[in-house]
Amino acid sequence: MSRPFRPAGRRPHERPAVVYLLRHAETEWSAGGRHTSRTDIGLTPSGEQRASRIGALLTRLRGPAAAPPVVLCSPRRRAIRTASLAGLRSPMILDELAEWDYGEYEGLTTPQIRESVPGWTVWTHPCPGGETADEVSARADRALARVAELGHVSDVVLVGHGHFSRVLAARWVRLPATNGVHFRHDAGCATVLGDERGVPRLDHVNLAPPE
Q1: Which residues pair with 94 in a beta bridge?
Q2: Position 8 confidence tier, pLDDT thresholds 50, 70, 90
Q3: Catalytic annotation present for 182
Q4: What is the 3-state secondary structure (H, E, C) of 134-182?
Q5: How confident is the model at residue 152 (pLDDT cuts 50, 70, 90)?
Q6: Considering just the CA atoms, what is the radius of gyration of the chain in Å?
Q7: Most exposed among 12, 28, 42, 44, judged by the fewest C-beta atoms under 10 Å?
C-alpha cells in the first residue's frame, strides 16, 4: 500500500506539496461514453476550448505567485494536448499514467458491455484481455512513488484519464483501487490531493475550470 505523500526537503512548518489530478478534456469517445484506453484519439473542438481554461483553474487553486509545478503526463496525445493548452510546460511523460486497459471492451459503452455481461462495471468485473483492478492499483502506487520522488521541487500536476485518476485518488487515501468509484472525475476537471500533518486527504474533487 502506498505511503502518504510527503516530499523530502520540506521543513515541518512549510506547506506540503499538493498533487493536482487533471483528466484530459473531451474527446469524441469520452463524450459518447466509450471506454478509451490505448486508442490514441484527439480532443474535440469543445475539449480544446475547455483545456485552454484549465490553466486559469490551476492559478486560482495554487495562487498567482506559486512556483511552476512539476508536470507528469500520460503518453496519450489527448492528455499531452490538454497539458499544452493548459499552459503546462515541459511535461515529463510517465507511462504509468495511461488509462485503465479495458482489453476487449475498448471502444464499447457500458450499456453495450452489459448486453453480454449484466451489471458490468470496471470497478466490479474483469476486462478480458485488459488489466485487473490489482494491476491498476500497483501501477497507481508506482505513479505515486514517482510523485514522491519529485515533489521536493514544487507541487505536482498529473495529466491523465478518468478511471485511472480516480484510482490514484483512492490509493492516495489508502483505499483499495475499486473505491475510486466514489470519486467523480469528468473530462477537463481537476481533483486535488492534499496532506494534513502527514495524513493524506482529498482537498477537492471534480473541479471544473471557469467558463
Answers
A1: none
A2: very low
A3: no
A4: HHHHHHHHHHHHHHHHHCCCCCEEEEECHHHHHHHHHHHCCCCHHHHHH
A5: confident
A6: 17
A7: 12
Q: What is the pLDDT of residues 101-140, one digit of tens each?
A: 999 999 999 999 999 999 999 999 999 999 999 999 999 9
pLDDT attached to residue 137:
98
Average pLDDT of the chain, as a whole number: 92
Out of 26, 35, 96, 99, pick the active-site residue. 99
Q: Alpha carbon of 73 to those of 21, 32, 80, 164: distances in Å?
A: 10, 24, 6, 12
User: CB 28: neighbour CB atoms within 10 A?
Assistant: 13
Summarize pLDDT for 22-63 with one digit per residue, the tens.
999 999 999 999 999 999 999 999 999 999 999 999 999 999
Contacts of residue 191, defined as CB under 8 A and 6 or more positions apart, other chains included, come to 20, 21, 165, 169, 183, 185, 202, 204, 205, 206, 207
| Grid cell 485552454 in the structure block, residue | 52
CA distance 110 to 187: 17
- Report DSSP letters for 80-111, one per residue: HHHHHHTT--SPEE-GGGSPP--GGGTT--HH
Q: Which fold would CATH assign to domain 19-207?
A: Rossmann fold (3.40.50)
Active site residue 13: no
CA separation for the pair 160, 19 (Å, rounded): 13
Separation CA 100–CA 23 (nearest Å): 13
User: Domain residue spans in the chain?
Assistant: 19-207
